Guanylate kinase
Amino acid sequence: MKKGTLIVISGFSGSGKGTIISKLIEKYDNYSLSISATTRKPRYGETDGREYFFISRDDFEKKIKNGDFIEYALYVDNYYGTPGEYVVKQLNSGKNVILEIEIQGAAKIKERFEDALMVFIAPPSAEILEQRLKNRSTEDGEEITKRLRRAADESFFIKDYDYIIINDTLEKAVESLNNLVECENMAVNRNLDFIDELERGLNKF
């Protein structure tokens, strides 16, 4: 069975990356979302084991020591990390595995998985990003300012990614992401086994 593609998706807080991923998985059946662990508190409507594994800071730090994460990062005073066993299992089963992680963690994933597809989700403008953060009403003014300042810092690392998707409309962003993955799955370096088999077959003539 052909191995799936590991897709690393990052973006500013408020860029809409979570919504894009949800719609992608809803529309297509060849994706699997890796659920991250975090020490932040659940937002309204979030469920443990669905959006995140919500754990205490002490438990998270124990898992770090045990080597349970393939990456982890500290973001706005909270830890976020990716459990490794699930990711490898899904890739080997042929699923395209999505990791929604911060820039710090994305860099660590690229070091470990050189063929990971790196995608950054961005808003059409800084002003629209600010408005989206305000509209979701999950943070106060001070927290929104922190997230915008963090976005300013993160913008310097966008060039480290393979592709950028501007989230102007949800439907267009979802289709752009799926098209990127489909193209990546057709890359020569991801189809070497097929090429070898084809060559062997042709050499019989």
